[in-house]
Amino acid sequence: MRFMITFTFFGLILRAIPAASQALPGMPPVVDPTNVYSESVAGKLSPATAGALPRVYVPNVKSGDVYVIDPATFQVVDHFMVGGNPQHIIPSWDLKTLWVAGSAERNLGGILAPIDPKTGKPGTAIKVPDAYNLYFTPDGHSAIVVAEALKRLEFRDPQTMKLQYNINTPGCAGVNHADFSIDGRYAVFTCEFSGGGLIKIDLLQRKQVGYLQLTREGTTSTATHNMPQDIRISPDGKVFFVADMQADGVYVIDAASFKQLVFIPTGKGTHGLYPSRDGKKLYVTNRGTHMGDVKQHGPGSISVIDFATRKVDKTWPIPGGGSPDMGNVSADGKYLWLSGRFDKVVYAIDTATGAVKTIPVGTEPHGLTIWPQPGRYSLGHTGVMR
């Protein structure tokens, strides 16, 4: 029997998720089980972000630095070196720190470097074996360092980054991006280099409990294999959307059965996924290139998928070509900020018109974040907010 529970949290009446699907112990309650993005809509900034400078932080993989942009003026206002190979900038679970995650490319080892969002300045980097990406368990108990090169997930203290335990992912070469079930009990990670698959991680049992090999049914790409990248859950938590850079579109995966449903063609080099602030649309970045096909001014574009119909509403090309990669949506929802991976620029895309502003940055900008963003807590990446 399924039923709803109501209770008080910080003085507000909240609706819990269905009792038949108990949430991960310790995670904040789900406010609206029909819209997991209900608490990250425009205007719902947490008190924890008070005093944070409005900034866009851009990690540049090849130049080893971070550019800082004022979103009000679209100008670079700061720049600092972090070393290594900075891949993504990640809001912490408690919204008080931004972490620069650096991978172990070129045998340099990985780093996790904190940034104080109130000053915009970096702190002392913490050395780790590898840190391609960073997530947080929904209960806030652990940071999940994605050690892509080592085929494992490192669960660490979210403040000190001291190791708690590992979950090895031997069948998932290129463990990459993730999102979490609506009840917080499991995460799904993409496997970039193992022929194109997904793994399901049970956060209570602390182990891998599922693997899904993506098939090319319904795709039109001439590529010979899959290469899943970003992943994002639907507002109602029933399906996951998975961007595939080689298939040139988005797979839809049933969350309950962990099976492939349909494929949505978008554009060449499908890469990043970002929900609109009202939770109705999904912005899809099409990088314009496949793996190994690195070039400037490719046929990059942004596709806008309607969550309800699972169809592409519109497509915005990058004028003159480009390589839109990773980023996120501004707090007010008016701009989609994205790195131009192979063009040494950042794009600020007007979400009403698709008009594009470009700002020059360093070499190979990747997982930028804009801060602050609405939400009660962060699950990681460039702002998976709940």
Structure description:
There is one protein chain. By secondary structure, this protein is an all-beta fold. Helix content is 0%, strand content 45%. The protein contains no helices and 31 strands. A hairpin with a 4-residue loop joins strand 17 (197-202) and strand 18 (207-213).
The geometry reads as globular
Largest sheet: 5 strands, antiparallel
How large, in whole angstroms, is the Cα Rg? 19 Å
**Level of helix content?**
under 10%
Low-confidence stretches: 1-20
Helical element count? Answer: 0
Q: What assembly state would you assign to the polypeptide chains in this entry?
A: single chain
How many strands appear in the DSSP assignment? 31
Strand pairing plus helix content: what structural class?
mainly beta
What is the averaged pLDDT score? Answer: 93
Query: What is the distance, rounded to the nearest whole angstrom, between the alpha carbons of the first and last residues?
Result: 27 Å
Beta percentage is: 35-45%
